[in-house]
Amino acid sequence: MRAHIVTYGCQMNEYDTHAIRSELAGIGYSFVDSYKEADLVLVNTCAVRGKPVEKAQTLLGELRKEKRQRGNLTIGLIGCLAQLPEGQRMGKRFNVDIMLGPGAITQIVPAIERGRFQSFEFDNELRFYSPPPPTGSVSAHLTIMRGCNHRCTYCIVPTTRGPEVSRHAEDILNEARALADAGVVEVTLLGQNVNSYGLEPGTGVRRARLEGYPSFAELLRMVGRVGIPRVRFVTSHPINFDDDIIEAIADTPAVCRYIHLPVQSGSDRVLKRMAREYTRDFYLNRIKKIREFLPDAVISTDIIAGFPGETDEDFEETLSLYREVQYDMSYMFIYSEREGTPAANHFDDMPREVKARRLARLADLAKEISLERNQEWVNHKVEVLVQGPFDEEGMSLGHTRGNHVAVIAGNLDPGIHQAVVAHATPNRLYCIEALEDAMLDSTV
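User: That's the sequence. What structure does it adopt?
Assistant: Structure tokens below.
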């Protein structure tokens, strides 16, 4: 039996795919690189924006054609898109055999055994895998919680991923120890909002802790003592990014000083329409506190351009916030309407060309600031986790502790290497391997 898995979207989907591969291998499946060679094809989907939905739909059309031609192909649509009416309509249209939402992915084996099966339940006892460590990899993901209790008006995640549920700390630590024993040198803790780990249901700043669970700050310290040299985490919500977390990063050497803190907009008016639960001043106060405790922190963000009702003045406030924070890197998107969200068909949208112009201006500013900040690392020493060869012959590709993409001269083995930055662009640091006496040590 041969399987092929296609994964779209976030790191949590990648983690789920790794776990599913382990489950399938346990019942005798091997894996092939093309769906044309497979008996089972699983499409692990993302529904946050329109583009991955379009990709999934195109692939399902190809799979339906393949199934008609040979008949013996089982198709599975799993993940966030499967949870939505839009995805369920696709499942019927493209003759999909298996439909599993994100909360039911652990049922993949019984689903395959039944042949035709669907589940969209959020059973908290079934929402977490403990997959074996990835073979031969120096980095890994580790899910610590699932779901989101926030109700941002543009976001479909609370619908697709369900309410927040935290994984037991001992299960997390056991998986981290297994990764360390397998030679993993970097682990990324995953959650839709990791800062809410271990908190009672609800939203907002003041939430009680669940009995028997550490805070996220305490969990960071615990994972930081396991023996994995690099610990990361994504994603954070500013409202729950408290001083304890900042202090935990500062006093735990293994935790990388890279913080991804999505702002989405610099305008209070737009933030309110987005239901982000914080103001511009609140967000900037969090940045100020981070810079105070972690002056060498690398900070990135997410921004939506062209949210419905965003005026020219609102957008200028986003640009001014970007300049004030001086982000090292950012992930920016044109607003994409998602069926089932409060913003869909409820707020006044704007022409796509307006959104595109704003995104282009934002990208130009981001490129300018990223170049300035990256050039500050020229002639300085950085620690690079090499993961494989670069496109160019004789070069290796990796990333720093600060999550900068780094290219190093030489065919280097996967693992941690010391390097000196020779040249910088807005998107990359170009490095050479460091000599023993090479300039400054760095945390990035």
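Residues 28 and 424 are 47 Å apart (CA to CA).
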